[in-house]
Amino acid sequence: MFPALSTDVLIVGGGIAGLWLNARLRQSGYATLLVESASLGGGQSVKSQGIIHGGTKYALHGALSGASEAIADMPRRWREALAGSGELDLSGVRRLSDAHYLWSPGTLAGKLTSFFASKAVRARVEPVKGEALPAALQHADFRGSVYRLDELVLDVPGLIERLAELAGPGLLAAREIAPLREAGELAGLSVDGRAIRAQRIVFCAGAGNAELLATLGLSQPAMQRRPLHMVMLKAPTLKPLYAHCLGGGPKPRLTVTSHPAADGQWVWYLGGDLAEAEGVARDEAQQIATARRELNELLPWIDLAQARWATLRVDRAEPAQSALARPDNAFLAGQGRLLVGWPTKLALAPDLTERIFASLERDGVRPTAHPPLPALPRPPLARPAWEELLP
Ligand code: FAD
């Protein structure tokens, strides 16, 4: 039997949500312990495209209503953290691109006119031409318009590594998690048979939240999964590109981000409409053929002869949403000692943490003294998907 442990806040899930929360709580003097059943970042976080959205793309379907959304402030907050002057010191984390771009392949002027009719949008985008274009679009045959969005793109594996560093000794690799009840109340969790008591238990286990809630006999808050079928390709001819390519619909036709592979080549990671419903219905070969056709049509000057391709199926996990729910805030629900959250976007991890701090404040949960943690089995860092699939 392991000796029992106690902490102020026991966090389940070591993705961006849990790790960000953990680092902020520790910085504020709380004792924390974060429990992870697989690898740090290996759920959705390291499979994400790493774009720190400011919400501009929502204007494409009319959902951007001004500065009130939490997401509008995210690029600034992350930039400050990356500069070492923000809420966390992320100064060593690599910024892959200082901007994300919006690119219309030339036939969509009408769509863009209504898009730019919004003042909120005009304040956030800047047209770019010539040498200011992303390198992959600098070609004599390129036709279309490109706009620079004030949204940065991060190296997520490096971000997760930094947050794991900020976690100090408070990370625990675990398999079996069960409720620990005392006098009929949830007092903590039993983790692989070890009792861990805490003032608050926070589930931020992404797609794992539903199952964790079920172990407590709870079905609320309800969760939804949104499946995606992403594509990645690696070739010595690829130059970095970070852009939403607009199609006729409300969602980008293609969202391209570029990630440095260990062998020095770039990997293009393709999402957007390509990866949604119709893409999910395609098998791997069909999905790769579709992606290849898209790139040949949109960027015919890029030589893909040596490209190696792979696809990745991954679900976004979110609170079940009614049609009225807003997509651009983190979600938090609480009952008794238990808090359950989904950031809904990597970019919104700071917003989820802020909501949890507000809940602690409201309930008078303050840092208390706990014995130091013993040496604990530490969960590994996730390997980037492109290193697994395109080594
Ligand atoms: P996760 O990263 O999924 O982490 C949950 C962790 O909990 C995992 O490590 C898992 O192993 C662990 N866990 C699960 N069950 C248990 C259990 N029972 N016990 C212990 N641990 C458990 N957002 C953006 O802002 N920008 C983007 O560009 C972007 N691109 C995306 C692209 C894709 C393909 C996807 C799928 C998502 C994207 N997102 C993006 C959304 C973003 O990735 C997620 O909102 C965010 O990563 C969720 O973080 P999380 O910590 O809640 O969950």
UniProtKB/TrEMBL annotation:
Entry keyword Oxidoreductase: yes
Chain ranges of the FAD dependent oxidoreductase domain: 8-316
Residue intervals passing through the bilayer: none
One Pfam family here: DAO
Protein name per UniProt: FAD dependent oxidoreductase
Gene3D superfamilies noted in UniProt: D-Amino Acid Oxidase, subunit A, domain 2, FAD/NAD(P)-binding domain
Keywords: Oxidoreductase
Source organism, top-level taxon: Bacteria
Annotated GO CC locations: cytoplasm
Organism, scientific name: Azotobacter chroococcum NCIMB 8003
GO molecular function, one term: oxidoreductase activity
InterPro entries documented for this protein: FAD-dep_OxRdtase (IPR006076), FAD/NAD-bd_sf (IPR036188)
